[in-house]
Design brief:
The chain is an alpha+beta fold. It is 48% helix and 10% strand. It has 2 domains: 15-109, no CATH class; 126-274, NADH Oxidase (3-Layer(aba) Sandwich). The longest helix is centred in the first third of the chain and has 26 residues, at 39-64. The structure holds flavin mononucleotide. Flavin mononucleotide binds next to strand 3.
Length: 296
């Protein structure tokens, strides 16, 4: 097969008709429909709708100091009503955001200002910048580990970094399975690096994508890549070492069987981590001058 014949399906676009149909459907959902939806699907829809119908518009209006039409908050209100009718907890993180956005929408619609200063990021000092680039540039794939347990707190820190990654349309489909080699010896023997005291398998709850199937398909794997890159960097940042790994079909099937998860959970990729026992030479990467194809 020549390069000319190569068809990269990962870059396919949905047709405009399919997108329109899916968007029409999502906008036609009534309060009763939303209350009846599967909870994961409902929350994924809520995250996407609030993001696209209120969040972006509200910050824009606040920034432009332009009047805000309260009608713009209607879809979020609908989802919050459904949230309450379903009896979902008010301490879930997205609910707090919805409350803030609705409160801010009311203020802006009355010509009042909103205070975004509590959300100002920590000032970036030269030291923080250096630290960031040290982590980015000194991370490398390590394929041998000490026989030493990794504390769960470190694992959770790493997973939090994965969850902090950007996610297409704020769908937030990323899930994990954490496997300790000690508790399931040999489960990953079909991988090309059977070691790794801890294996972190990045999964996706496909119900989140199914609920938002007008969002670009390509985002699905990009979401996984963004999350896993954060994980890989966090592994290095907490003093551990790891290697991002690829499933072969047989390993994928073995894990799927062992994890006994529903079909809507997709196993995408995994990383083996632990206390590193080797310091390989960092892989030379392309120079910017070679990688930039054009500067227009
Ligand atoms: C998507 C992806 C899949 C990878 N799969 C494997 C793998 O199956 N086996 C392996 O030894 N390394 C794997 N790696 C690690 C790469 O070989 C490694 O990142 C690359 O050689 C560059 O080295 P560095 O990570 O030290 O910068 C994978 C990396 C990525 C991003």
């Amino acid at each position: 097969m020549s390069v000319k014949d190569f068809h990269d399906t990962a870059m396919d676009y949905q047709s405009m008709d399919d997108i329109k149909e899916a968007a029409q459907y999502i906008n036609s959902l009534t309060l009763d429909d939303l209350v009846k939806l599967d909870e994961t699907e409902f929350r994924a829809r809520a995250r996407e709708r609030v993001h696209h119908t209120l969040e972006q518009q509200l910050y824009r209006a606040a920034f432009d100091k332009k009047p805000f039409n309260i009608k713009q908050a209607e879809i979020t209100k609908l989802y919050v009503d459904a949230w309450n009718k379903r009896g979902l907890s008010h301490s879930l993180p997205e609910y707090k955001q919805y409350e803030f956005l609705l409160e801010s929408a009311e203020k802006l619609s009355k010509g009042e200002e909103i205070d975004l200063t509590p959300f100002t990021p920590k000032p970036i000092t030269p030291e923080l910048t250096d630290n960031f680039f040290t982590v980015v540039n000194e991370r490398r794939s390590v394929r041998a580990w000490e026989d030493k347990d990794v504390p769960d707190e470190l694992i959770d820190k790493i997973l939090n970094a994965g969850l902090a990654a950007p996610h297409g349309c704020n769908v937030q489909a990323t899930r994990f399975v954490v496997v300790k080699e000690k508790t399931t010896p040999g489960l990953f023997k079909l991988g090309n690096i059977p070691g790794g005291p801890v294996h972190i398998v990045l999964c996706q709850d496909m119900r989140c994508y199914e609920a938002n199937n007008f969002t670009p398909f390509r985002n699905r794997l990009l979401d996984a890549g963004a999350a896993m890159e954060n994980v890989a960097l966090a592994v290095h940042a907490v003093g551990l070492a790891g290697v991002w790994l690829t499933f072969r079909e047989v390993l994928h099937d073995e894990l799927k069987k062992a994890f006994d998860l529903p079909d809507y959970i997709r196993l995408v990729t995994y990383i083996d981590i632990g206390y590193g026992a080797q310091t390989p030479m960092p892989t030379p990467k392309l120079d910017v001058s070679e990688a930039v194809l054009k500067r227009l």
